[in-house]
Amino acid sequence: MDELAELFEAERGRLRGLAYRMLGSAAEADDAVQEAWLRLTRAGSVDNLAAWLTTVVSRVCLDVLRSRKARREEPFEVVPEPVAHTDPAGEVELADSVGRALLVVLDALGPAERIAFVLHDLFAVPFDRIAPVLDRTPVAAKKLASRARHRVRGTSPLPPADLARHRRVVDAFLTAARGGDLATLLEVLAPDVVRRADAAALPAGAALEVRGARAVAEETQVFGKRARFAEAALIDGSIGVVVAPRGRLSLVLTVVVEGDRVAAYEVIADPARLASLHIAVDHSNR
Fold this sequence. Notes:
The protein is an alpha+beta fold. It folds into two domains: 2-153, Up-down Bundle (Butyryl-CoA Dehydrogenase, subunit A, domain 3), CATH 1.20.140; 160-280, Nuclear Transport Factor 2, Chain: A. Helix content is 58%, strand content 15%. It is built from 13 helices and seven strands. The chain has helices spanning 2-23, 26-43, 49-71, 88-98, 100-107, 111-122, 127-134, 138-153, 160-179, 182-188, 213-222, 224-227, 271-276, and strands spanning 189-197, 209-211, 230-235, 238-243, 251-258, 261-268, 279-280. It has a seven-stranded mixed sheet with strand order 2-1-6-5-4-3-7, with helices on both faces. The longest helix is centred in the N-terminal third of the chain and has 23 residues, at 49-71. The relative contact order is 0.13.
């Protein structure tokens, strides 16, 4: 048993990373890995431990995702997650390492699509090994991964050079917001910039619209705490921002860039509006 435990511990980090990408919850990922260990102790030795554990964890995660769907969980609702197995700061770091935009997009996929994409595109598992996990043929598993890949990557009508420029402006805006850097915010915001927001995104009584670089910059400094959980993403084909504590979407910023400055941005928090957006991972800076 000691030898088996040692072999399992050597796989734990990889399995946790796999499960976290499938579930988007560190606590649930740890539970899935623990379940794999319990099943291994009952199974004893296996021929290919790494492959066997990957299959078991994937099946456990698939069951969890299907259960979520059956309960009709709202994908855009910020739901506090149990932290029995992890501290909040640790989960923040985990979300940062994976990428918040990717976690948001994965959360919008169907269970089978998510499993197929994570296994193949992120962990290089061949389709003939993915197929039994999903109870599909390899061809069907390949189609699921392809459909998920299209949603994850997204497309933009902007030329690549313009998309990359917009990304640089948005990144500069986020960096300044995180640091509460008023001087840099004034540089990146257009003089007549406009900030609009859903009422749900603002404190009671706050203005739904603010105009002018200084007024917007001063307000954006308050956004600094949320900016820690923010990342650039493709929003309906344009560069915008997702705010996703622990990888769960809470806000979206749609951003209008003119030249090298932010001309306007809107903070979207209404669940119906969030659900109508097409969010994808931006690869313009990669």
